[in-house]
Amino acid sequence: MIRSGSRVAARQLSVLIGKELRQLVRDRVLLVFTVYIFSLHIVITTLGASDDLRRAATVVHDGDQSAMSRDLVQRLRPPYFAVTGEVANAADGARALDEGTARVFLDVPEDFSEKLGRPDQQASVQLLVDTSKVSLGYLASSYASRIVGDVGSEAAAARLARAGIVEAPPRIESRERTWYNFTLDLKASFALQSLIMMMSVACVMLPATAAVREKERGTIEQLLVSPVSPLQIMLSKVVAMVLVTLTGTALAVYGVLEPIFGVPMRGSAPLFFAMVALYASALAGLGLVLATLARSSGQVGLLVILTVLPMLFLSGTNTPIEGMPRPEQWAIQALPLYHFVHIAYGVLFRGEGLASLWPSALAVAGIGTVLFSLGLWRFRKQLT
User: Fold this and answer.
1) pLDDT at site 247
2) Does domain 56-162 have CATH number 3.40.1710.10?
3) Which strands make up the sheet holding 56-62, listed edge to edge?
4) Which residues of the chain have pLDDT under 70?
5) Which of 26, 281, 312, 368 is most deeply buried (CB count within 10 A of its CB)?
6) What is the reported pLDDT for 359?
7) How far apart are CA 284 and CA 234, in angstroms?
8) Structural domain boundaries of the chain?
Protein backbone atom coordinates (compact mmCIF):
# COMPACT_ATOMS: atom_id res chain seq x y z
CA MET A 1 0.00 0.00 0.00
CA ILE A 2 2.84 2.38 0.84
CA ARG A 3 4.60 1.64 -2.45
CA SER A 4 1.35 2.04 -4.36
CA GLY A 5 0.74 5.39 -2.67
CA SER A 6 4.26 6.52 -3.52
CA ARG A 7 3.77 5.56 -7.17
CA VAL A 8 0.52 7.51 -7.31
CA ALA A 9 2.14 10.55 -5.72
CA ALA A 10 5.09 10.37 -8.13
CA ARG A 11 2.70 10.02 -11.08
CA GLN A 12 0.69 13.01 -9.90
CA LEU A 13 3.85 15.06 -9.49
CA SER A 14 5.09 14.17 -12.98
CA VAL A 15 1.74 15.19 -14.49
CA LEU A 16 1.86 18.53 -12.65
CA ILE A 17 5.44 19.11 -13.84
CA GLY A 18 4.37 18.42 -17.42
CA LYS A 19 1.50 20.89 -17.00
CA GLU A 20 3.91 23.62 -15.84
CA LEU A 21 6.25 23.02 -18.78
CA ARG A 22 3.39 23.08 -21.29
CA GLN A 23 2.10 26.34 -19.84
CA LEU A 24 5.54 27.91 -20.22
CA VAL A 25 5.83 26.77 -23.84
CA ARG A 26 2.37 28.14 -24.66
CA ASP A 27 3.19 31.49 -23.11
CA ARG A 28 5.16 32.87 -26.06
CA VAL A 29 6.23 36.09 -24.34
CA LEU A 30 7.61 34.34 -21.28
CA LEU A 31 9.26 31.68 -23.43
CA VAL A 32 11.00 34.26 -25.63
CA PHE A 33 12.09 36.18 -22.54
CA THR A 34 13.56 33.01 -21.00
CA VAL A 35 15.54 32.16 -24.15
CA TYR A 36 16.68 35.78 -24.51
CA ILE A 37 18.13 36.15 -21.00
CA PHE A 38 20.19 32.98 -21.40
CA SER A 39 21.59 33.86 -24.82
CA LEU A 40 21.33 37.23 -26.53
CA HIS A 41 21.24 39.27 -23.32
CA ILE A 42 24.57 37.79 -22.19
CA VAL A 43 26.14 38.61 -25.56
CA ILE A 44 24.87 42.20 -25.58
CA THR A 45 25.80 43.04 -21.99
CA THR A 46 29.23 41.40 -22.19
CA LEU A 47 30.25 43.04 -25.47
CA GLY A 48 29.11 46.42 -24.20
CA ALA A 49 30.65 46.16 -20.73
CA SER A 50 34.28 47.08 -20.13
CA ASP A 51 36.12 48.67 -17.22
CA ASP A 52 39.38 48.91 -19.14
CA LEU A 53 40.87 52.17 -20.42
CA ARG A 54 40.89 52.41 -24.22
CA ARG A 55 42.01 55.40 -26.31
CA ALA A 56 41.24 58.03 -23.69
CA ALA A 57 40.96 61.38 -25.49
CA THR A 58 44.00 63.48 -24.47
CA VAL A 59 44.86 67.11 -25.20
CA VAL A 60 48.33 68.52 -24.62
CA HIS A 61 49.86 71.91 -23.96
CA ASP A 62 53.58 71.57 -24.71
CA GLY A 63 55.16 74.76 -23.44
CA ASP A 64 58.68 73.33 -23.63
CA GLN A 65 58.70 72.16 -27.26
CA SER A 66 61.83 70.08 -26.66
CA ALA A 67 62.83 66.56 -27.60
CA MET A 68 62.11 65.36 -24.05
CA SER A 69 58.63 66.90 -23.94
CA ARG A 70 57.78 65.49 -27.36
CA ASP A 71 58.98 62.06 -26.21
CA LEU A 72 56.67 62.31 -23.20
CA VAL A 73 53.69 63.30 -25.34
CA GLN A 74 54.43 60.53 -27.84
CA ARG A 75 54.22 57.91 -25.09
CA LEU A 76 50.58 58.81 -24.46
CA ARG A 77 49.57 56.59 -27.36
CA PRO A 78 47.05 53.78 -27.95
CA PRO A 79 45.77 51.48 -26.68
CA TYR A 80 45.35 53.47 -23.45
CA PHE A 81 45.59 57.07 -24.66
CA ALA A 82 45.00 58.93 -27.90
CA VAL A 83 46.28 62.50 -28.29
CA THR A 84 43.50 64.33 -30.10
CA GLY A 85 45.24 67.70 -30.35
CA GLU A 86 47.31 70.44 -28.76
CA VAL A 87 46.03 73.61 -27.12
CA ALA A 88 47.62 77.04 -26.91
CA ASN A 89 47.37 77.42 -23.15
CA ALA A 90 46.28 75.69 -19.97
CA ALA A 91 42.89 77.43 -19.93
CA ASP A 92 41.95 75.80 -23.27
CA GLY A 93 42.92 72.38 -21.93
CA ALA A 94 40.78 72.82 -18.81
CA ARG A 95 37.91 73.97 -21.02
CA ALA A 96 38.20 70.78 -23.10
CA LEU A 97 37.73 68.74 -19.90
CA ASP A 98 34.72 70.84 -18.90
CA GLU A 99 33.10 70.40 -22.32
CA GLY A 100 33.69 66.65 -22.32
CA THR A 101 35.79 66.64 -25.51
CA ALA A 102 38.82 65.29 -23.61
CA ARG A 103 39.30 63.00 -20.65
CA VAL A 104 42.97 63.84 -19.95
CA PHE A 105 44.88 67.14 -20.19
CA LEU A 106 48.69 67.18 -20.00
CA ASP A 107 50.36 70.52 -19.33
CA VAL A 108 54.14 70.54 -19.88
CA PRO A 109 55.85 73.69 -18.52
CA GLU A 110 58.45 75.70 -20.46
CA ASP A 111 61.40 74.62 -18.31
CA PHE A 112 60.59 70.90 -18.29
CA SER A 113 63.65 69.63 -20.18
CA GLU A 114 65.99 72.08 -18.44
CA LYS A 115 65.00 70.91 -14.97
CA LEU A 116 64.92 67.26 -16.03
CA GLY A 117 68.55 67.46 -17.08
CA ARG A 118 69.81 69.01 -13.82
CA PRO A 119 70.33 66.91 -10.69
CA ASP A 120 69.54 69.80 -8.34
CA GLN A 121 66.15 70.56 -9.90
CA GLN A 122 62.82 68.76 -9.82
CA ALA A 123 60.92 68.62 -13.09
CA SER A 124 57.13 68.45 -12.93
CA VAL A 125 54.16 68.32 -15.29
CA GLN A 126 50.49 68.84 -14.58
CA LEU A 127 47.95 66.17 -15.42
CA LEU A 128 44.23 66.92 -15.18
CA VAL A 129 41.85 63.96 -15.45
CA ASP A 130 38.07 63.88 -15.83
CA THR A 131 36.94 61.47 -13.11
CA SER A 132 33.19 61.79 -13.64
CA LYS A 133 33.55 58.09 -14.56
CA VAL A 134 35.54 57.05 -11.54
CA SER A 135 37.03 53.76 -12.74
CA LEU A 136 38.23 55.17 -16.08
CA GLY A 137 39.57 58.32 -14.41
CA TYR A 138 41.49 56.25 -11.88
CA LEU A 139 43.03 54.10 -14.62
CA ALA A 140 43.96 57.16 -16.70
CA SER A 141 45.68 58.76 -13.73
CA SER A 142 47.51 55.54 -12.80
CA TYR A 143 48.72 54.78 -16.34
CA ALA A 144 49.83 58.36 -16.99
CA SER A 145 51.69 58.50 -13.68
CA ARG A 146 53.56 55.34 -14.59
CA ILE A 147 54.48 56.74 -18.00
CA VAL A 148 55.77 59.99 -16.49
CA GLY A 149 57.71 58.01 -13.89
CA ASP A 150 59.40 55.95 -16.62
CA VAL A 151 60.46 59.15 -18.40
CA GLY A 152 62.01 60.46 -15.18
CA SER A 153 63.84 57.19 -14.50
CA GLU A 154 65.28 57.08 -18.01
CA ALA A 155 66.40 60.70 -17.75
CA ALA A 156 68.11 59.97 -14.42
CA ALA A 157 69.91 56.94 -15.89
CA ALA A 158 71.09 58.98 -18.87
CA ARG A 159 72.40 61.74 -16.55
CA LEU A 160 74.35 59.17 -14.52
CA ALA A 161 75.81 57.72 -17.71
CA ARG A 162 77.03 61.14 -18.82
CA ALA A 163 78.67 61.57 -15.42
CA GLY A 164 80.61 58.35 -15.92
CA ILE A 165 78.48 56.21 -13.64
CA VAL A 166 77.74 53.17 -15.74
CA GLU A 167 75.96 51.17 -13.06
CA ALA A 168 72.20 51.36 -13.24
CA PRO A 169 70.43 52.87 -10.23
CA PRO A 170 68.84 50.35 -7.86
CA ARG A 171 65.33 49.33 -8.81
CA ILE A 172 62.76 46.74 -7.81
CA GLU A 173 61.83 44.24 -10.50
CA SER A 174 58.26 43.02 -10.39
CA ARG A 175 57.46 39.60 -11.82
CA GLU A 176 53.75 38.85 -11.90
CA ARG A 177 52.08 35.49 -12.36
CA THR A 178 48.36 35.43 -13.06
CA TRP A 179 46.26 32.42 -12.08
CA TYR A 180 42.95 31.15 -13.48
CA ASN A 181 42.48 34.00 -16.00
CA PHE A 182 45.90 34.15 -17.62
CA THR A 183 45.06 36.76 -20.23
CA LEU A 184 43.15 38.99 -17.78
CA ASP A 185 40.23 38.87 -20.19
CA LEU A 186 37.45 40.93 -18.64
CA LYS A 187 34.81 39.60 -21.04
CA ALA A 188 35.05 36.08 -19.62
CA SER A 189 34.32 37.38 -16.13
CA PHE A 190 31.58 39.71 -17.38
CA ALA A 191 29.90 36.86 -19.29
CA LEU A 192 29.76 34.60 -16.23
CA GLN A 193 28.57 37.50 -14.10
CA SER A 194 25.77 38.23 -16.58
CA LEU A 195 24.73 34.56 -16.60
CA ILE A 196 24.56 34.45 -12.79
CA MET A 197 22.47 37.62 -12.67
CA MET A 198 19.98 36.47 -15.31
CA MET A 199 19.82 33.01 -13.78
CA SER A 200 18.89 34.57 -10.44
CA VAL A 201 16.14 36.65 -12.03
CA ALA A 202 14.71 33.62 -13.85
CA CYS A 203 14.84 31.35 -10.79
CA VAL A 204 12.75 33.79 -8.77
CA MET A 205 10.45 35.18 -11.43
CA LEU A 206 9.41 32.01 -13.30
CA PRO A 207 7.96 30.04 -10.35
CA ALA A 208 6.44 33.18 -8.86
CA THR A 209 4.76 34.06 -12.16
CA ALA A 210 3.52 30.50 -12.62
CA ALA A 211 1.97 30.45 -9.14
CA VAL A 212 0.32 33.87 -9.44
CA ARG A 213 -1.18 33.08 -12.84
CA GLU A 214 -2.99 30.16 -11.23
CA LYS A 215 -4.76 32.78 -9.12
CA GLU A 216 -5.39 35.14 -12.04
CA ARG A 217 -6.89 32.44 -14.28
CA GLY A 218 -8.87 30.76 -11.51
CA THR A 219 -7.16 27.40 -12.03
CA ILE A 220 -5.94 27.31 -8.44
CA GLU A 221 -9.42 26.25 -7.34
CA GLN A 222 -9.35 23.37 -9.83
CA LEU A 223 -6.02 22.21 -8.43
CA LEU A 224 -7.35 22.38 -4.88
CA VAL A 225 -10.30 20.11 -5.61
CA SER A 226 -8.07 17.63 -7.43
CA PRO A 227 -6.47 14.75 -5.49
CA VAL A 228 -3.13 16.53 -5.03
CA SER A 229 -1.61 18.18 -1.97
CA PRO A 230 -0.30 21.76 -1.63
CA LEU A 231 3.18 20.26 -1.35
CA GLN A 232 2.82 18.58 -4.74
CA ILE A 233 1.50 21.78 -6.32
CA MET A 234 4.44 23.85 -5.10
CA LEU A 235 7.02 21.15 -5.68
CA SER A 236 5.90 20.72 -9.29
CA LYS A 237 6.49 24.41 -9.98
CA VAL A 238 9.92 24.27 -8.39
CA VAL A 239 11.00 21.15 -10.30
CA ALA A 240 9.65 22.47 -13.62
CA MET A 241 11.43 25.79 -13.32
CA VAL A 242 14.63 24.08 -12.20
CA LEU A 243 14.52 22.05 -15.43
CA VAL A 244 13.99 25.25 -17.41
CA THR A 245 16.92 26.91 -15.62
CA LEU A 246 19.18 23.93 -16.30
CA THR A 247 18.25 23.99 -19.99
CA GLY A 248 18.88 27.73 -20.21
CA THR A 249 22.19 27.44 -18.36
CA ALA A 250 23.36 24.68 -20.71
CA LEU A 251 22.45 26.93 -23.65
CA ALA A 252 24.38 29.81 -22.11
CA VAL A 253 27.49 27.80 -21.18
CA TYR A 254 27.90 25.75 -24.35
CA GLY A 255 26.31 28.18 -26.81
CA VAL A 256 27.56 31.56 -25.56
CA LEU A 257 30.12 31.57 -22.73
CA GLU A 258 32.51 28.90 -23.99
CA PRO A 259 32.51 29.41 -27.80
CA ILE A 260 32.12 33.22 -27.89
CA PHE A 261 33.86 34.51 -24.74
CA GLY A 262 36.21 31.63 -23.92
CA VAL A 263 34.85 30.93 -20.44
CA PRO A 264 36.51 27.64 -19.43
CA MET A 265 34.94 24.64 -17.75
CA ARG A 266 37.96 23.67 -15.68
CA GLY A 267 35.96 21.70 -13.14
CA SER A 268 33.34 19.00 -13.40
CA ALA A 269 30.39 19.86 -15.64
CA PRO A 270 28.00 17.48 -13.78
CA LEU A 271 29.02 19.12 -10.49
CA PHE A 272 28.39 22.59 -11.94
CA PHE A 273 24.91 21.73 -13.20
CA ALA A 274 24.09 19.94 -9.94
CA MET A 275 24.99 23.15 -8.09
CA VAL A 276 22.88 25.15 -10.57
CA ALA A 277 19.92 22.88 -9.79
CA LEU A 278 20.50 23.34 -6.06
CA TYR A 279 20.71 27.11 -6.42
CA ALA A 280 17.66 27.24 -8.69
CA SER A 281 15.67 25.26 -6.13
CA ALA A 282 16.67 27.67 -3.37
CA LEU A 283 15.64 30.77 -5.34
CA ALA A 284 12.47 29.05 -6.55
CA GLY A 285 11.49 28.83 -2.89
CA LEU A 286 11.96 32.60 -2.67
CA GLY A 287 9.80 32.99 -5.78
CA LEU A 288 6.98 30.99 -4.19
CA VAL A 289 7.19 33.16 -1.08
CA LEU A 290 6.77 36.23 -3.29
CA ALA A 291 3.85 34.55 -5.07
CA THR A 292 1.99 34.28 -1.75
CA LEU A 293 2.44 38.04 -1.28
CA ALA A 294 1.44 39.13 -4.80
CA ARG A 295 -2.04 39.27 -6.29
CA SER A 296 -1.06 39.80 -9.93
CA SER A 297 1.82 39.27 -12.33
CA GLY A 298 2.60 42.98 -12.19
CA GLN A 299 3.08 42.80 -8.44
CA VAL A 300 5.38 39.82 -8.94
CA GLY A 301 7.63 41.96 -11.15
CA LEU A 302 7.79 44.69 -8.54
CA LEU A 303 8.59 42.22 -5.76
CA VAL A 304 11.30 40.61 -7.89
CA ILE A 305 12.92 44.02 -8.39
CA LEU A 306 12.62 44.76 -4.67
CA THR A 307 14.29 41.51 -3.60
CA VAL A 308 16.57 40.36 -6.42
CA LEU A 309 18.31 43.63 -7.33
CA PRO A 310 19.71 44.26 -3.82
CA MET A 311 20.77 40.62 -3.69
CA LEU A 312 22.63 40.98 -7.01
CA PHE A 313 24.50 44.12 -5.97
CA LEU A 314 25.39 42.86 -2.48
CA SER A 315 26.43 39.30 -3.26
CA GLY A 316 29.91 39.97 -4.66
CA THR A 317 29.14 39.82 -8.37
CA ASN A 318 29.62 43.58 -8.85
CA THR A 319 31.47 44.80 -5.76
CA PRO A 320 34.01 43.06 -3.50
CA ILE A 321 32.60 41.83 -0.21
CA GLU A 322 35.78 42.90 1.60
CA GLY A 323 35.00 46.58 0.99
CA MET A 324 31.63 46.46 2.74
CA PRO A 325 30.97 47.20 6.44
CA ARG A 326 31.42 44.23 8.75
CA PRO A 327 27.73 43.89 9.79
CA GLU A 328 26.75 43.94 6.12
CA GLN A 329 29.25 41.18 5.35
CA TRP A 330 27.61 39.00 8.01
CA ALA A 331 24.11 39.70 6.69
CA ILE A 332 25.11 38.94 3.09
CA GLN A 333 25.97 35.36 4.04
CA ALA A 334 22.22 34.72 4.38
CA LEU A 335 21.85 35.23 0.62
CA PRO A 336 22.06 32.08 -1.53
CA LEU A 337 23.65 34.07 -4.37
CA TYR A 338 26.63 34.92 -2.15
CA HIS A 339 27.48 31.23 -1.83
CA PHE A 340 26.64 30.35 -5.45
CA VAL A 341 29.07 33.00 -6.78
CA HIS A 342 31.87 31.15 -4.98
CA ILE A 343 30.65 27.86 -6.42
CA ALA A 344 30.31 29.08 -10.03
CA TYR A 345 33.69 30.80 -10.19
CA GLY A 346 35.31 27.94 -8.31
CA VAL A 347 34.10 25.23 -10.70
CA LEU A 348 34.45 27.13 -13.99
CA PHE A 349 37.67 29.10 -13.46
CA ARG A 350 39.55 27.31 -10.67
CA GLY A 351 38.48 23.73 -11.26
CA GLU A 352 37.43 23.16 -7.65
CA GLY A 353 35.59 20.05 -6.58
CA LEU A 354 32.97 19.22 -4.01
CA ALA A 355 35.67 18.65 -1.38
CA SER A 356 36.27 22.42 -1.19
CA LEU A 357 32.83 23.64 -2.22
CA TRP A 358 30.65 21.61 0.15
CA PRO A 359 30.31 24.42 2.77
CA SER A 360 28.86 26.75 0.14
CA ALA A 361 26.62 23.99 -1.24
CA LEU A 362 25.39 23.17 2.27
CA ALA A 363 24.61 26.84 2.88
CA VAL A 364 22.59 27.09 -0.35
CA ALA A 365 20.68 23.91 0.53
CA GLY A 366 19.92 25.19 4.04
CA ILE A 367 18.71 28.59 2.84
CA GLY A 368 16.63 26.95 0.11
CA THR A 369 14.97 24.61 2.63
CA VAL A 370 14.01 27.55 4.82
CA LEU A 371 12.59 29.53 1.87
CA PHE A 372 10.60 26.57 0.49
CA SER A 373 9.21 25.76 3.93
CA LEU A 374 8.17 29.39 4.38
CA GLY A 375 6.47 29.43 0.97
CA LEU A 376 4.65 26.15 1.68
CA TRP A 377 3.46 27.43 5.08
CA ARG A 378 2.13 30.66 3.58
CA PHE A 379 0.48 28.78 0.68
CA ARG A 380 -1.34 26.44 3.06
CA LYS A 381 -2.32 29.36 5.24
CA GLN A 382 -3.92 31.14 2.28
CA LEU A 383 -5.98 28.04 1.47
CA THR A 384 -7.44 27.63 4.94
Assistant:
1) 93
2) yes
3) 81-86, 56-62, 104-108, 126-129
4) 1-5, 48-51, 160, 162-171, 183, 220-221, 223-225, 382-384
5) 281
6) 92
7) 10
8) 2-48+183-383, 56-162
